[in-house]
């Protein structure tokens, strides 16, 4: 049930674990998560004020999900004049929603979620800042009016937290879908700076992910799992977590729900940091600095939760790790 919940909300970054499902469903050891927070100070310029924007802001929800609504609430604390528009209303078409936004006289749109970003890019007549989108390659980032904020917290902060929890970590791997060159660069830099070896593979399906994972496992002691449902499925994810447990490979995930299935730690963004970064980008757009803003701006903070049962397992020397069946 937990995997079904995860895949039904795969675009949600930072969603808290649900109440359904039992720990250890996959046969791997698990325990209640412990929280371990690492954060970097956001820019002082992102604190809101009464003169934040000269025009109104439309916050567009791609779906009615807690992770999206929580960010909308954080945004509300930083904006003076805004309204929330919901694309999940089946009685409304995207075109009609944006017609209402035009009537609202919004000077900027903040799109939360992939659907909101895609629809806003198609219908908005004003600049758009999006967040909570992992597969940004599916969105037309060449559009002058569209800028994004990263869905994942900085990988350097994740590495720092991971090494603090496991000082013996040395070889980290990842399997990534197509179109994530920037993510690969960030992961390579974060691992290299921390003195870790980083290995990655590019997959195009869930079965290819499992095939590559089984062959990568003997070479690593840590694995980064990213939220790409193009190359993941419930069945494959369950097999990966079980296989990693048997081979003493820690898996770092992006959703604390997966701790109950045997992941070692989860690293998620912080809602207030997402909102503050979105507003920082929005301010620059309003000032006319749009061309100097990267397509996707990185976040500044991270929330880490751990599975003590997995982290406390004795390390297995590389020579003692079984090969691929």
Helix/strand layout:
Elements: H1 2-8, E1 34-39, E2 56-61, H2 66-76, E3 82-86, H3 94-103, E4 106-112, H4 114-123, E5 128-131, E6 146-149, H5 155-165, E7 171-177, H6 181-193, E8 197-203, H7 206-216, E9 222-224, H8 234-246, E10 250-253, E11 265-268, H9 271-286, E12 296-297, E13 301-306, H10 308-311
Parallel strand pairs: 2-3, 2-4, 4-5, 5-6, 6-12, 7-8, 7-9, 9-10, 10-11
Antiparallel strand pairs: 1-13, 11-13
Helix pairs in contact: 2-9, 5-6, 7-8
Enumerate how many helices there are, as a single number: 10
CATH fold name of the largest domain: Rossmann fold
What fraction of the residues are assigned to beta strands by DSSP? 15-25%
Largest sheet, if any? 7 strands, mixed
Q: Order of strands in the sheet with the most strands?
A: 1-13-11-10-9-7-8
Rg over C-alpha atoms, rounded to the nearest angstrom? 20 Å
In the CATH hierarchy, what is the architecture of the largest domain at level 2? 3-Layer(aba) Sandwich
Q: What's the pLDDT, averaged over the residues?
A: 82
Name the structural class. alpha/beta
Give the end-to-end Cα distance, rounded to a whole number of Å.
28 Å
Shape: elongated
Question: What is the helix fraction of residues, given as a range?
Answer: 25-40%
CATH superfamily of the largest domain: Response regulator
């Amino acid at each position: 049930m937990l995997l079904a919940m995860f895949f039904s909300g795969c675009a949600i970054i930072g969603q808290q674990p649900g109440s359904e499902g039992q720990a250890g469903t996959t046969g791997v050891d698990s325990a209640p998560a412990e929280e371990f927070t690492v954060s970097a100070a956001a820019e002082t310029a992102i604190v809101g004020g009464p003169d934040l924007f000269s025009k109104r802001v439309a916050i567009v929800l791609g779906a009615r999900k807690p992770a999206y609504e929580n960010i909308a609430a954080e945004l509300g604390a930083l904006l003076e004049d805004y309204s929330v528009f919901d694309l999940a209303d089946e009685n409304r078409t995207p075109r009609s929603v944006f017609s209402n936004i035009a009537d609202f006289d919004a000077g900027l749109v903040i799109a939360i979620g992939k659907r909101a970003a895609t629809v806003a890019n198609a219908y908005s007549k004003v600049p758009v800042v999006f967040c909570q989108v992992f597969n940004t390659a599916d969105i037309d980032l060449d559009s002058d009016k569209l800028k994004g904020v990263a869905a994942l917290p900085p990988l350097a902060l994740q590495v720092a937290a991971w090494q603090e929890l496991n000082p013996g970590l040395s070889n980290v791997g990842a399997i990534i879908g197509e179109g994530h060159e920037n993510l690969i660069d960030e992961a390579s830099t974060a691992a290299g700076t921390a003195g870790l070896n980083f290995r990655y593979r590019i997959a195009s399906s869930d079965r290819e992910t499992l095939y590559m994972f089984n062959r990568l496992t003997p070479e690593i002691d840590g694995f980064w799992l990213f939220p790409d449902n193009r190359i993941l499925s419930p069945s494959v994810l369950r097999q990966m977590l079980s296989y990693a447990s048997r081979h003493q490979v820690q898996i770092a995930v992006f959703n604390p729900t997966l701790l109950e299935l045997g992941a070692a730690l989860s690293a998620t963004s912080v809602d207030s940091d997402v909102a503050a970064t979105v507003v920082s980008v929005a301010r620059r757009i309003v000032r006319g600095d749009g061309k100097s803003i990267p397509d996707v701006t990185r976040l500044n903070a991270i929330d880490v939760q751990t599975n003590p049962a997995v982290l406390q397992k004795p390390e297995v020397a590389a020579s003692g790790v079984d090969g691929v069946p």
